[in-house]
Every structure is written in C-alpha cells, then in structure tokens.
Design brief:
DNA-binding, 3-methyladenine DNA Glycosylase, Chain A, single chain, 207 residues, 8 strands, eight-stranded antiparallel beta sheet, mainly beta, 3 helices
Amino acid sequence: MSAQVSTERPVGRIARSTVPQDTVTLARWLLGLVLIGKVHGVQVSGRIVETEAYLQHEPACHGFRGMTPRNRSLFLEHGRAYVYLCYGTSYMLNVSSEAAGIGSGVLLRALEPLTGIEQMRRGRTHVRPADVTRGPGRLAAAFHIDRRDDGRDLFTDSQLWIGRDSYEVADVGVSVRIGITKAVEERLRFFVAGSRFLSGPRSLNAG
DNA sequence: TCGCGGATGAACT
DNA sequence: GTTCATCCGCGAG
C-alpha cells in the first residue's frame, strides 16, 4: 500500500474550547494535527501520527501515585505540556488531558516532519530524515524540547503549540502501548494507519 | 528487519 | 538503591 505523505498547508490556531477533555478522545483527536516549535529561532513543524493515552487509574500512568514535583503539570487543565526525562537520555512530551486535578495525559510518540527538517537534523546528520521525529525521544530532541517546556499551554503558547491545517486522517489504527512494563495489555496506542513515520515494530502498525 | 545490551540521570522509595 | 513511556550500534537471519 502507498503511504500518504502530507504536503505543506497553512496552519491555524485551535480554539481551546474545542479541545476534548477526555484522555482517549484527545489521543485520537490529536492525530493529524500539527506540532509547531522553534529551534534556534527557526520554526519547525510536524504532523502528529502516533499517540498513547495514559489514564490516572492505571499503574502505567505517571499520575497513578498522585502528584509529585515532577508530574504536577499532568494535573493541570487539559492541553498543558508535561515533559520529563526518561532513562537519563530522552525527554518525553505529553499533553495533559483532563480537568485540573486529574493526572491523565497523552504521549506524543511520532510526527511526520513538515517544515524545518534540516534544522531538526542539525547536529544529528547521521539520522535519516524519515527517522528524525520517529519515537518520543527523537521527537523531543528534534524540537529541542526539555524541562523548560514543562507546563506550557500547548494551544496558546508562542514557542511550542499545536495547530490545525486542512489535513484529515483517513484511518486510525489501535494497538497496545510501546515500551512500558505495567498495564501492557491495554490498547491505548493510536496512529495514522499507513503512515511511513510510525515508531515501534511493523507488526503493531498493521490494521 | 529483528532483538539484544549498554549508556544515562533525575525522581522517588 | 531502584526505577524508567528510550536510543544507538551491533550482529544474525
């Protein structure tokens, strides 16, 4: 099958009032939207093609044991960035997903690069262009996302935000989540079916 | 394409 | 001291 590749289209702001306030709904709704960032003053962007939902009531979720200094952004109202360092090497970008006080969120796992590809690859020229935003750690590295971005409002921020263009997702795929050790059976990973820019083993990206 | 092992650092128990 | 939602390079098939 031929993977559809999106072309450049004008990206606009999304009214906060239209952002879903339910974790699984938000995880699916984010697919096809565009993440915009800035690297050394240059705008970079990519289409969201893969997300995972993390619900506070399950042990795989960072909010499971309640609020701590690290995860407090997860408990803000929906649409805030929760950024943390994983394995000492990779930052993860999440979107808080429920009302204030509830520690659920959506992990952004992969983007299809749209603009600023060479900027994203700066200093990582050994990474193939198609791989530069494949995987949550590489996505954050490409956008230079770190703990300073923690807490940003991703629908009103000027440096790091989520917008929308005319692209519409045809088919959404569902699978188990990747890389976790708890609640491994939950099917809470969502992706743009057929995208060439997904992370994880091929077997998870079919159907 | 896959599976494996090491690197890595901050938060948490 | 343990945990961890990863990445990279390597070698086998």
